[in-house]
Design brief:
This is Lipoprotein. By secondary structure, the chain is an alpha+beta fold. Helices cover 17% and strands 44% of the residues.
Amino acid sequence: MKTMPKSINGLLATIMVTSLVFSACKKHDDASGAAGKEEFATVALESDAEAEVVFDDVFNNVMGVSSEVGIGGTGVFGRVDVSSGSTNRVEGVDSTTCYTVITKQLGSTRFPLQITIDFGSGCTGRDGRTRKGKIIVLYTGHLVVAGNSATTTFDGYYLDNVKVEGSHKLTNTGTPDKKSYTTQVINAKLSRSNGNYMQWSSTKTVTQIEGGATPLIGLDDAYNITGQAGGAVQKDGKYFQWATTITSPLIKRFICRWISKGTLGLKKGNDAVAVLDYGPGSCDNKASFTVNGQVHEITLH
């Protein structure tokens, strides 16, 4: 049997402790019966998928700041198509540079290096999403080198109308023949102005399965995602708490905002409630879940 790394054990312990705290101070909504299970599955799976999208965006921005710390050109850091002499962006989501990047060397050597991406009072990208506030990233070294990591925190940061709090750690766990990263989201909180909020923690392994032959180009990249997460959501006066485990690897293509393939299982406590299926591989914001033998569609945000 494989032994889990201490960092993952620690994260799972955090999820379990958080769950106990939630249980002590919240009245859970019932997930028994067909209607209860359907409502629980809909709210929990939509919330889990939303958190995945938010922190996938963080991943892309952390990797995309520059070729000094990552691969450059991903996320809001669009890469210019220099081969044709064009000024068109071929990667990334920005149409104009409406953010500032502040680099701070913390010691006598280049690393550790702190980079702050400041979106100010609002910066709308080519993807139609508006980011504001700051993403603060501490790099231990170049992320293409195994063992190096980047830890991200947030200062008044919003993705559209969702306030993002918590921390995100990205670690290169690859080998010479395979690109692989471990992502840890710890004690995240995603809040809306109407009082609804979500708390989420996650440990995932992201392994490149396509595009390895072109390491400086992200457009042809595809990734295989495995792992688990746990969360809770307060929505319209109701409270739901869940855990998910990826049961067949999720497929995420760089050129698509959403996960396009794979399945994950949803649990409430020790009880299996539903299975979410992201589909056959097409790039769209739809997924379906099965509960009590009935298939239901949800929209990913």
